[in-house]
Design goal:
- Belongs to the guanylate kinase family.
- It comes from Agrilus planipennis (Emerald ash borer).
- Keywords: ATP-binding, Kinase, Nucleotide-binding, Transferase.
- The structure is a single chain.
- This protein is an alpha/beta fold.
- It is built from seven helices and nine strands, in the order E-H-E-E-E-H-E-E-H-E-H-E-H-H-E-H.
- It has one domain: P-loop containing nucleotide triphosphate hydrolases (Rossmann fold).
- The chain is globular and about 45 Å long.
- About 35% of the residues are buried.
- The mean pLDDT is about 90.
- The structure holds adenosine-5'-triphosphate (ATP).
Length: about 200
């Protein structure tokens, strides 16, 4: 069954911090076990409570990450809120080798870089209802300090602008109601990413 996905285009989920990418991704991975594989990004930020090294992120140092970037080991990388993030070639290869559809959770800077590669994924933008709701979600998540929260919000409006620009994404999902947003994502996945090739 896993081999049925071989050759299918990867799926990029992008959107401002707190917009609900991880939440939607979790639902997708639960709904389609064995079909999708998450490309585990590298980051120099500290783990949040409950985050597991190698599962949620590969936690690394700025020194090591800079060196790996110089050595060409990354497909895309970005600095956000004083921390580095990136997708290594190995992270994508690991998923493809499992015969799964590779899902990448990246920001706008990463999307712009991926567009210059031959990865050829589907691009989905997850849009927050507005910046006040985004702030509320980030506050409720209790992962941010006042400073990191401000930084995340300050880039969010530019990201939404890029997300809404026609042609930049294959699908823009408004994450107002979670079930509604997930339905839109799932429909797109069924019709385009899986292209009728397999069910659950
Ligand atoms: N539709 C929704 N309605 C209400 N709350 C939501 C909705 N979608 C997500 N949330 C909540 O908003 C918070 C942020 O969501 P999540 O962590 O998935 O965002 P993210 O885009 O992955 O952020 P980051 O890029 O910082 O990892 C979480 O606490 C999540 O439970």
């Amino acid at each position: 069954m896993a081999n049925n996905t071989r050759g299918l285009r990867p799926l990029v989920l992008c959107g401002p911090s707190g917009t609900g990418k991880s939440t939607l991704l979790k639902k997708l991975l639960e709904d389609y076990p064995n079909t999708f594989g998450f490309s585990v990004s590298h980051t120099t930020r500290l783990p949040r409570p409950g985050e597991i090294d190698g599962k949620h992120y590969h936690f690394t140092t700025a020194e090591k990450m800079k060196q790996d970037i110089e050595e060409g080991k990354f497909i895309e990388n970005a600095t956000f809120g004083g921390n580095m993030y990136g997708t290594s070639k190995d992270a994508v290869k690991t998923v493809l080798d499992q015969g799964k559809v590779c899902v990448l959770d990246i920001d706008v800077q990463g999307v712009k870089q991926i567009k210059k590669t031959d990865l050829n994924p589907f691009y989905v933008f997850i849009k927050p209802p507005n910046l006040n709701v985004l702030e509320e979600r980030l506050r409720q998540r209790k992962t941010e300090t006042e400073e990191t929260l401000k930084r995340r919000l300050s880039v969010a409006s530019h990201e939404v602008q890029y997300g809404e620009e026609p042609g930049n994404f294959d699908l823009v999902v408004l994450n107002d109601n979670l079930e509604h947003a997930y339905d839109q994502l799932k429909k797109f996945v069924k019709n385009h990413v899986l292209n009728g090739k397999q069910g659950k």
